[in-house]
Amino acid sequence: MKLRISSDLRKAKNIGATIEKCLNEIGIFTLADLAEMTSVEAFKRIRENYPGKTIPVCYYLYSLEGALLDLHWNDIPSELKEELKARIKSYV
Questions:
Q1: pLDDT value of position 92
Q2: How far apart are CA 4 and CA 60, in angstroms?
Q3: Residues 46, 55: contact at Cβ < 8 Å?
Q4: Cβ pair 28, 44 in contact under 8 A
């Protein structure tokens, strides 16, 4: 697998080394890649990569959405958090 240099993920809000590594493993290397895949799909794929590991919704799903919105995950409006949780409800 050819790895691309991460151009802007690490600079995004909520994206540290751990989340960046998980994103790179599913083919996301830039915020544009994440936007194209969506935070919900990225969250699902990360969970699939780590079936035996607990992947917290707030730490991953909200962090990914917050990165796209340039918001700290805790500052995402409650309504959006509920919508995101609803979109993964059948998955988790």
A1: 58
A2: 22
A3: yes
A4: no
DSSP characters over the chain: -PPPP-SSTTTSTT--HHHHHHHHHTT--SHHHHHHH-HHHHHHHHHHH-TTS---TTTTHHHHHHHHHTS-GGGS-HHHHHHHHHHHTTT-
Query: Would you state the pLDDT for residue 2?
Result: 45
At 6 the pLDDT is 44
- Mean pLDDT in runs of 10 for the chain (92 residues)? 57 92 95 95 94 86 95 95 90 60
Nearest to 62 by CA among 39, 32, 36: 39
Neighbour count for residue 41 (Cβ, 10 Å): 16
64, two tokens: 């990914």
